[in-house]
Specification:
Arc Repressor Mutant, subunit A, 2 domains, 6-stranded parallel beta sheet, 229 residues, alpha/beta, single chain, elongated, Rossmann fold
Length: 229
């Protein structure tokens, strides 16, 4: 059976069903070639699905999506130049008919919520089964979204970690100044650090939180109560 509604984690009748195109055209983005090749092999084994383009970073993804106009973009989050969610936010405005699905090993509430808030209509783990990938694709095409049962729970789950568990005291100081719009040189002057050290702290924060732009760091700080909007 090509589309299993119950296993796809959707409520029957909740969204209008559309006829799937004869061929679902997918652009795939992941900066790890081996991972991308594995996911491509899985996708191309699904009847009616064709991977028409592959990107290794967010900027390449943006250009490829504009040129190829796929039905679905499936992208990792952490990529060079521009992360996957930032690319989705940019592309969703320009191409509202394209469906964007995040594929990631990180399924914490912050990431799922951030993906949905920026225009992703689906979120699936890289370790998902071939059957789940198939369900995700055809659920997104026919019903407009795919967040499996666990992902849906995480979508509405409040993050349970505190900022002091996520970051060091110095990183928290740097984060608060980043949200004020200060540059590395200005932050360094405030804290008695070199701009290079500030950049190191910022990079480690981004890697630890899996957030790769200033807007996402600011949103994190607001959600954690570190700053007020």
């Amino acid at each position: 059976m090509l589309f299993d509604e119950e296993r796809a984690g959707v409520v029957p009748g909740a969204l209008p069903v559309k006829a799937a195109p004869r061929q679902v055209r997918v652009v795939l983005a992941d900066d790890h070639h081996i991972v991308r090749a594995g996911i491509k092999a899985l996708l191309t084994s699904i009847p009616g699905v064709a991977v028409i383009g592959e990107a290794a970073d967010g900027l390449e993804l943006a250009k490829m999506t504009a040129a190829l106009r796929p039905n679905i973009v499936m992208t990792d989050i952490s990529m060079p130049l521009m992360d996957g969610i930032a690319a989705i936010a940019q592309l969703k405005t320009a191409f509202p008919a394209i469906k964007f699905v995040v594929i990631s090993m990180h399924d914490d509430p912050e990431q799922v919520q951030r993906a949905a808030a920026n225009g992703a209509c689906g979120f699936i783990g890289k370790d998902a089964s071939p059957h789940e990938f198939e369900n995700a694709i055809f659920s997104v095409i026919t019903r407009g979204r795919y967040f499996g049962t666990e992902m849906t729970r995480r979508l509405y789950q409040s993050p349970d970690s505190s900022p002091t568990e996520d970051l060091t005291p110095r990183q928290l100081e740097v984060l608060k100044l980043i949200t004020r719009g200060l540059a590395a040189k200005e932050i360094g002057f405030e804290l008695g650090l070199s701009p290079k050290t500030v950049d190191v702290h910022r990079g480690r924060m981004m890697e630890r939180l899996q957030l790769y732009d200033i807007a996402s760091l600011t949103l994190y700080a607001i959600r954690k109560g570190l700053v007020t909007p």
